[in-house]
């Protein structure tokens, strides 16, 4: 597998990085301000962005990523109550309340699929579908 994931987070991520690494992914955690530099230094198959800096800023950065790297898969790690429009740049929205198994399933599903071509965002419901 050995797919590279860039995890953009504003705090010390306590479970996502080790969880992904235990599944064989290579994860580089960075702050939002360091993300573009990290993207230019290494090839990534997936970027995961937390919404800690605010949903508007997260989606604006997602748009910036998609314009510069159109084939890059981008996931937004959102809180339960945060609204992410279906026509946003994200390929998937992963809710913070997901169990570890559901989180990993969503990541695998995204990596096995194709990047968003401007269509709908994949948002799995709370029942696991």
Give the helices and strands, then pairings.
Elements: E1 4-8, H1 16-22, E2 26-30, H2 35-41, E3 46-50, H3 55-68, E4 73-78, E5 92-95, H4 100-112, E6 122-123
Parallel strand pairs: 1-2, 1-3, 3-4, 4-5, 5-6
Shape from CA axes?
globular
How many domain modules?
1
Helix content: 25-40%
Query: How many angstroms does the end-to-end distance come to?
Result: 24 Å
Overview of the structural elements:
- It is a single chain.
- This protein has 129 residues and is an alpha/beta fold.
- It has one domain: Response regulator (Rossmann fold, 3-Layer(aba) Sandwich).
- It is built from four helices and six strands.
- A six-stranded parallel β-sheet has the order 2-1-3-4-5-6, with helices on both faces.
- The longest helix has 14 residues.
- The C terminus is likely disordered.
Notable traits:
single chain, 129 residues, alpha/beta, Rossmann fold, six-stranded parallel sheet, globular
Would you summarize the structure shown here?
The protein has 129 residues and is an alpha/beta fold.
């Amino acid at each position: 597998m050995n797919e590279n994931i860039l995890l953009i987070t504003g705090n010390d991520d306590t479970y996502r990085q080790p969880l992904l690494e235990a599944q064989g992914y290579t994860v580089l955690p960075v702050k939002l301000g360091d993300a573009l530099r990290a993207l230019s230094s290494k090839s990534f198959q997936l970027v995961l962005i937390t919404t800690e800096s605010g949903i508007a800023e997260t989606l604006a950065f997602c748009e910036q990523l998609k314009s510069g790297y159109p084939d890059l898969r981008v996931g937004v790690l959102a809180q339960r109550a945060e609204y992410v429009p279906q026509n946003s740049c994200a390929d998937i929205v992963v809710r913070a309340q997901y169990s570890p198994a559901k989180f990993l399933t969503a990541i695998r599903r995204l990596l096995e699929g194709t990047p968003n071509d401007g269509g709908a965002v994949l948002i799995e419901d709370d029942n696991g579908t």
